Amino acid sequence: MPRSFDDYYKVWGDTPKWLAERGWQHVNDPRDTPASFTWGVPNTTLFEYLAQNPEAGSRFGAMMAVQASGKTSWADEGAYPVKERLGDAEEDEVLVVDLGGGSGHDLLGFKARHPDLKGRLVLEELFYMINQLAGKVEGIELVEHDFNTPQPIKGLSFVWPSELIL
Length: 166
What we know:
The protein has 166 residues and is of the alpha/beta class. The protein has two domains: 65 residues, no CATH class; 80 residues, Vaccinia Virus protein VP39 (Rossmann fold, 3-Layer(aba) Sandwich), CATH 3.40.50. The chain contains seven helices and four strands, in the order αααααβαβαββ.
């Protein structure tokens, strides 16, 4: 059974070759990465690859959720003044948007920690994740969104970018 390690082990090993071919210079192009080089998919972002390879996408999502487990959450008591900053939201207002939030684990944790707060919880993710999550995360709105494009929800006061890969 393939694991996330299997997806990325060769990428790590090929990174020096990828860098050497680029004169050891920083490349600021999401379509030219060690992953696209190793996987033989030039001009493809990581997330486009994951969308085209759902099993790899599922492994990636699981890896990101595990990586976040056990860490202090911004929604934990004392980590961020949640009630003071977000406690006056109305029921129909967007309370929190989790941008690139994978399986919704952060928003589910937020909801469990602060069940008394009003407002809508929105998970923005790529289409393949939204399709996997439909009907599985109660109380969270699912919005298809690529975070490389303009934010579709206007007037936000709080957006939580999940574990970002820069």
